């Protein structure tokens, strides 16, 4: 999950838990190298992010991206 701290983040985390999934918190303020290392180390299957943070995680080749638009 790569999202700004907001109510949308809380709703996203609750939805992941309800679906039986696990999440890796990715702070958008981390460096691109740190984000890439965390994703590779965790072997993440998908990333949930807001549209403004898609560029931060665009280098993750093996990970599917689910972008959320903010109203």
Overview of the molecule:
- This protein has helices spanning 7-18, 32-42; strands at residues 46-50, 64-68.
- With 71 residues, it is of the alpha+beta class.
- It is globular.
- The chain starts with 6 loop residues before the first helix and ends with a strand.
- The mean pLDDT is 80.
Please state the CA-atom Rg, rounded to the nearest Å. 11 Å
Distance between the termini: 18 Å
How many DSSP E strands?
Answer: 2
In terms of per-residue confidence, which ranges show pLDDT below 50 for 5 or more consecutive residues? none
As a percent range, the share of helical residues equals: 25-40%
| SS strand fraction | 5-15%
**Spatial strand sequence of the major β-sheet:** 1-2
Q: Please trace the helix and strand order, writing H or E for each element.
A: HHEE
In terms of structural class, how would the helical and strand content be classed? Answer: alpha+beta
* Major sheet size, sense and barrel closure: 2 strands, parallel
How does the SSE layout of this entry go?
Elements: H1 7-18, H2 32-42, E1 46-50, E2 64-68
What are the salient characteristics of this protein?
single chain; about 70 residues; alpha+beta; two-stranded parallel ribbon; 2 strands; about 30% helix; about 15% strand
